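Data deposition worksheet. Section B asks for the primary sequence of the deposited chain exactly as it was used as input, without tags or linkers unless they were present during the calculation. Section C holds the resulting structure in token form. Section D is free text for depositor observations; keep each observation to a single sentence. Incomplete worksheets are returned to the depositor.
Section A, Depositor: J.P.
Section B:
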Amino acid sequence: MKGIAERIVGPTLRKYGVPEWVDPYVYKYLKSNPLTVVKFATSFIDTKRKKGEVTKKYVRLPNGTTFSMDSIIHLLNLFYYGEDRMVGIYKRWSEGGSEYSARFSAMIPSKAKHARALKNMMEGLGRRPDTKEPRELKEVFDYIGSLLAWNDRIIATNVVLRGSYANVFGSIFFKVFYPVSPEFMRSLGKAFASDAVDNEWGFEEAKRIIREGLMPEERVLELARELTARVLLSIEANMRFARQAKILREMELLRDIAVANPFHTLKELGLDVDVPLEIRTVSALARSLGRAKRAGRK
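Section C:
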């Protein structure tokens, strides 16, 4: 089974720039049904000659996969909420006269543009953004907004948040959905590409902070654990929508990759990271946070 996956899936993932450390997660996902290997690979093959379909009730991808419109709008609402929250956070961080303040101030227009693009896309599909805050996702951004040290803020946004959300969910979402609705996704893609320079600066600064030892290694890992645990809870909170959309196993795969991603990145940047141990630690922390929330609501 693994040999088949390596021949079919491995080259496909490399084509889209997916790092090799992701492969074991994909093989685990495919293990129960070897026929899924072909389906998984073909779902990412160039589909430019095929057309998807967008109706008021569903979205059908070029590979034949169909999602209810409610599921699509729910996903877009989550992206929209995250971008809109980051606008507010960046505005607070831009106060003051430091170089970092200026950097985050300069990123506000592109973040606002992302939010508008998502809002316009939902309106183009005949819906409006949900005004109700998604509780678990709110707690992710509340945690980020509570960070006071610049080094914490830069690591949180450019290593953890980008690794768990943008690189895993945003990238795959764009690549899969673009052929379905180019009139919406083309403008969305341009909006998200608009801050490439700022993203490059943020990640390079995060690398410098880590490689020059400007932040204690244990603090880096503590921050990654605390934020990733909250990310995990936010993903788990949306599993019922994945079940309704009949993509539960796919969402579980993305969840596992999202949790592992920040720690693989930190390891690549030179920290002594035991990734499997960190994943277990994050899972235990998420369970602890979940129990505390449930107890607080009683």
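Section D:
Strands lie at 53-54, 58-60, 66-68.
The CA atoms of residues 114 and 212 lie 32 Å apart.
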